[in-house]
């Protein structure tokens, strides 16, 4: 594990580095898609910047609310600048920020949702590489499988061999990114976004069974409850858009 890179007078957090790479990768595919839609390619930089700022703020607030004993154990500066980010909070914060940007650009609509689907999936896949390299505690429960591993030098260390769930998620959402990208422009507007919600919700729901998070209701973790909501919302969204398309062509 390499939680940080020592570059003389500067220490770079590897998770932060992967987050930056995720934003760059998202910027590239968003720019590509904007060009295909006949929109200004420069919008990609604005949208990704908004997503990055909103995502980090949302992810940090979510983590602080879920881990008050850690977040407020020291100074406020330590809580804000220290480790600890939650994906769902980042997704919500990034979505709000991008919607505000899109409203300003008069681009708020179904095209925006479909534009973001493969980008969010890709960003998640790359972000989990950062979790793996940093060993930030997103690993799973103990396992005796051949590929199980320990994280003795991670940000949240463990000497017990566990499921390397960040690797599982990177692979799963990497495949999801490819599928969503190849489906762009082939489906009724809004369906791609609905599919993203379903895929991401199912992926996270399943991975939670071998992660270390505590259950909250009916043997399910908070992440699983949110995942169920994502699957239901995504399925309803797809059904709505498909029905609207059938009505329009009737």
Outline the structure in words.
The chain is mainly alpha-helical and 250 residues long. It has one domain. It has helices spanning 14-36, 43-66, 68-71, 76-81, 87-104, 110-134, 165-183, 191-207, 222-249; strands spanning 4-7, 10-13, 149-151, 158-162, 215-217, 220-221. The strands form three sheets. The chain has a two-stranded antiparallel ribbon with strand order 1-2. A two-stranded antiparallel ribbon has the order 3-4. A hairpin with a 2-residue loop joins β1 (4-7) and β2 (10-13). It is globular. It starts with a strand and ends with a helix. The model has no long low-confidence stretch (mean pLDDT 90).
Write a short abstract of this structure.
This protein is mainly alpha-helical. The chain has one domain.
Distance between the termini: 58 Å
Q: What percentage of amino acids are in beta strands?
A: 5-15%
Strand count, sense and barrel status of the largest sheet are: 2 strands, antiparallel
**SS field, number of helical segments:** 9
Within the largest sheet, what's the order of strands?
1-2
Task: Report the average pLDDT across residues.
Answer: 90
If you compute it from the alpha carbons, what radius of gyration comes out, rounded to the nearest whole angstrom?
Answer: 19 Å
The total of beta strands comes to 6
Global structural class: mainly alpha
Instruction: Please tell me the total number of domains.
Output: 1
Helix amount, in percent? 55-70%
Q: What's the order of the H and E elements?
A: EEHHHHHHEEHHEEH
The dominant shape is globular
Low-confidence stretches: none
